[in-house]
Amino acid sequence: MTHKILPFLILLFVIGNAQNQRFIYEYKFIIDSTDRENLEKELVVLQVNSKGSEFYSYQKFKMDSLASIDVDKQIHNDSEIINPKHIYRGKINYTVSKMYPSFETYFKTFMGANEYKVSDERKPNWKILPEKEKVGEFNTQKAETKMYGRTWTAWFCTEIPIQDGPYKFHGLPGLILKLADKSGSHIFELKGISKNSGREPFKVDPRISAPAEVAINQKQYQKLFLELRNDPGKTLRELMNQNDAIKVIGEDGKEVDLAEMLRKGEQQGKEQRAKNNNLLELDLIK
Length: 286
Description:
Elements: H1 2-16, E1 21-30, E2 39-48, E3 52-57, H2 58-76, E4 94-99, E5 104-111, E6 114-120, E7 127-135, E8 138-147, E9 150-157, E10 175-181, E11 186-195, E12 213-217, H3 218-230, H4 234-242, H5 258-275
Parallel strand pairs: 6-12
Antiparallel strand pairs: 1-2, 1-11, 2-3, 3-4, 4-5, 5-6, 7-8, 8-9, 9-10, 10-11
Organism: bioreactor metagenome
Pfam families: Porph_ging (PF09697)
């Protein structure tokens, strides 16, 4: 009897607090299409309130929270140098914001020396299908769409009345609990639900130096993305041209040769580009 009641109570909790929740997904993804055995995994969060949603890396949120605590400690100790030691090393270095009820969508990421806020007006055109499936304790229905150069299958739950989902996906009559592209390269699946603590998802602490946010549209973003992808040394060269007195100190305390640093950076960038060929938004590069 207890086992039958528990899922029902969970469902009541979710429905009753649907506009004030964190939905935690496991994101599985393959970075290199030629090495499909190398499957990456990361927890991501869809944080929902009455005004909209924020999608972000759970690990980055934790690390940025620790960094903010470090800043508090250093300021309390009258330290003149703020140098957070907690640095996020994961793969999800972006956030996606959606504004309700229009689902105006913004993709935020760092490229080069700047942070960009990219407006994306593309909307999924879903085909709802009759197939049903259980995702965890929830009843879901199947839907398909073509977006970002891929064909996607989603399983949505009408019992959770939120027309949202992981990443930029939205527009179904219920929360998307599971989402996968046809090749199995990118898979999101709901793993947990928690009530919002009222705390903002990770924001850059104003006491930590950070570049200003630059607003651009999707076409401008793609142009800039390809420029930096094809020329990984562009940002460093521009910094060197703007200030010929710039110096970089290595971990050993010695000055780094910028020409050598540029050469290594360009080589590493080319190697990363060759491996990072299976982007979620495949149409960025094809």
